[in-house]
C-alpha cells in the first residue's frame, strides 16, 4: 500500500481535558481559508428524458424473438417507443422517438405496467456519483484542512474512513432523530446554529466548576473550561484532583459540528447529518470535568426522563454521544465501594435509557490502556479510535468492551512514528477564544471523543432510513455491516506491551471498522441484509516497517501469495517469412506520485 502524505512535524502544547478529550486541537478563522478553496457539487439524480427499461415476462427466447414480441407490444399500445437493445435476462432498453416530460413518461409506464406480457417497466435512471457537499473544507485544497474522515473510503488513502458520502445518497434529505451531545456545552457558530436545539441545559451543579456564577441553568452555552495553574494552586481544596488546562477545549462545539454542521452551504465544514439533524447540547462538564451525578442527570434528561428541579425535555434524544472516559471500572462488584456505587448508578441509568430504545455511544478513552467509563459499562456502545489508514490510533484505549472502531484522528504530537504515520486529525467547528468564547472558527482534533460521534451519526442515518428499527437492530446492524479490521503487518497486534499504533482484532477493537454505507443498507431491510464478503486489508509500506522497528512491535507474518496455476503449454506458431526488417516494442511504465501534505493549521494538545 502507498501511504498517505506524510505530515510535517509540529509542536503542540499539553492541555489534557479528561480521559477521552482531544489529543490535539486548533482554532482558526474561517475568513481567508474559505476564499482559497473551490466547492465541489454533485449533480442531482434525474430520470432519463427519452428512455425506458422493461423486462419481458417470457425471457426464455432469443433476442430476435424477444425484439419481435416487444415491438408488437409497443405497436399495440400505440407508444412512440422502439426496442433499442437487450440488457440480458429479458431486460430491454426502449428509446423514444421524441422527448417526453415526466407526465408523459408516467403515462407510458402506466400502459406498459398494465400489460401482462411485461414483468417490469421503469425509467432509465442516471446513477450519480456519491453525494458531495460544497462546503469548502470538505475537500480542501490543503489536505491539512480536509474532512477526509467524512469523505469516501479508499483502501489506498483512507482505509479507516466510514464512507459517509455513499450513505448520504439515500439519507441526506430524510429527517434524523435528535442526538444529545453530553459534553462541555456549545458556543455560537454560524455553520452550526441552525441545527442546534437551543438552549439545551447545563447540568454542572457547582457554580465554580460551571464557570457561569450560578451552576445549573437552562442554557448549555460553554463559557470556557480553562483552569490555570495559578488558579488551581490558589484554592487547592476546591480544585484538588482537577486537571490544569491553560486554554479552553470547546470540546462540545467540536463534537456538535461533526454531527450537525450546516452542510452544502458553500461555507466551512460538512456534518454527518447533512442538514436534517437536530443536535441537543447537554452540558455536563466544566472546569473540573464531569461529576458522575451531573453526568447521570444529563443522560436521563436528554432521553426524556424526569430530573428533580429541571424542566421537562421537550425534545427527547434517541441517541446520546458521550466524549468522556473515567479511569475506573463499571463493575458493581468492584472492591472500591465508591467505584462500585458509581458503576451501579450508571448501570441503572443505562437500563432506563435502553428501556426507552435510546442508543448510547461513548469514547473508549485516550490512555492506550483499558476502556474507560462509561464506555466500559454494559449497554453502552464503546468506540475506539483509528488512524486514517485504519489501524489503532496511538492514543486510543482498547479492550473487549469496545464495540466498534472509527477514525478519531491521529495527528502528530512529537511521539514515536508521527513523522511516518500521523494523519491530519478530525476537522470540525470550534471557537478561537483562548479561555472565554471569541469568534467562531474551525479546528483539527484527535481523540476517541471524535470517533464516537461518527458511530452516533451513523445510528441517526440508520433510523432516518428506517424509523421502525429497534435499538437492538441498530446495534446489531452497526456490527454486521462493519468492515474487517485492517492488518498493518509491521505494527503487530495490539496488546498491553504493544499499545501504540497497532493492528486491531475483534477482541481488542470491536467487530471491525465503521461502514456507514453498509449500515444504512442494513437499516433499509434488516431481515434481507447480507453483509458483503470481505477480508482484512493488508497494509505494507516502508513507513509502516520503520515504525514497527521504532516501536519494537512483533510483526505479523505476511501471508505467502497464492501461486498462480501453471498454464497449459501453447504450441509455438510456425515462423512467418522474414521481411528483412527489424522491430521492437517497449512496455509502458506507470508512476504514481503522492505529494507530501503541507499543514497550514497549528495544533494544540487538549
From TrEMBL:
Pfam families: Peptidase_S8. The keyword Nucleotide-binding does not apply. GO terms for biological process: protein processing. Keywords: Hydrolase, Protease, Serine protease. GO terms for molecular function: serine-type endopeptidase activity. The keyword Secreted does not apply. Transmembrane segments: none annotated. The active site is at residues 183, 251, 449. Residues 556-576 have a biased composition (Pro residues). GO terms for cellular component: membrane. Residues 548-587 are annotated as: Disordered. Residues 177-482 form the Peptidase S8/S53 domain. Belongs to the peptidase S8 family. This is Peptidase S8/S53 domain-containing protein.
